[in-house]
Amino acid sequence: MSIELTVNGQTVSVQAAGDTPLLDVLRNHLELKGSRYGCGLEQCGSCMVVIDGKAEYSCAKDVSTVAGRRVETVESLLDHPLHQAFLDEQAGQCAYCVSGIMMTAKALLDANKSPTRDQIVAALDSHLCRCGAHPRIIRAIERAANVLREGARS
Amino acid sequence: MSETLPLSIQNNRRMEKWLRFQADRTVKLAVGKVEIGQAVLIALTQIAAEELDIALDRFVTISGDTADAPDEGSTSSSQSIEMSGRSVRLITAEFRARVIDRLARRLNCSPSDISVEDGAFLLDDEPTGHDYWNFSGDEDFAADISGTAQPKDPSTYKIVGKPIPRQDLKAKISGAGFIHDIVRPDMLHARVLRQPSREATLASYDEAAIRRAARGEFQVVRVGNFVAFVGADETTVQRAAVAAPNHAVWKNVRQLTPAHQEAAWYATQPSDDRFVGDPVPETDAGEVVTATYSRPFVAHAAMAPSCGLAEWRDGHLQVWSHTQGVYPLRNSLAEILGLTREQIVVRHAHGAGCYGHNGADDAAVDAAVIAMQIPDRCIRVQWRREEEFAFEPVGTAHMTRLKAVLDASGNPIDWTCEVWAGSHVQRPIYGGNMLTHEALPNPPPAPKPNDPPEAAGGGGTRNGTPLYDFPKKRIVHHLSLTTPVRTSSLRGLGALPNVYALECFVDELAEKAGVDPVAWRLAHLSDPRARYLIENVAKRCNWADRGPGGNGKGMGIAWSRYKNRAAYAAVAVEIEVDQEIRVRKAWIAADAGLVINPDGAANQLEGGLIHAVSMTLKEQVKIDGAGIASLDWSTYPILKFSEIPEIFTEIVHAPNQPTLGMGECTFGPTAAAIGNAMKHALGVRIRDMPLTRERIAAALLGG
Question: Is the pLDDT confidence value at B630 over 70?
Answer without folding.
Answer: yes
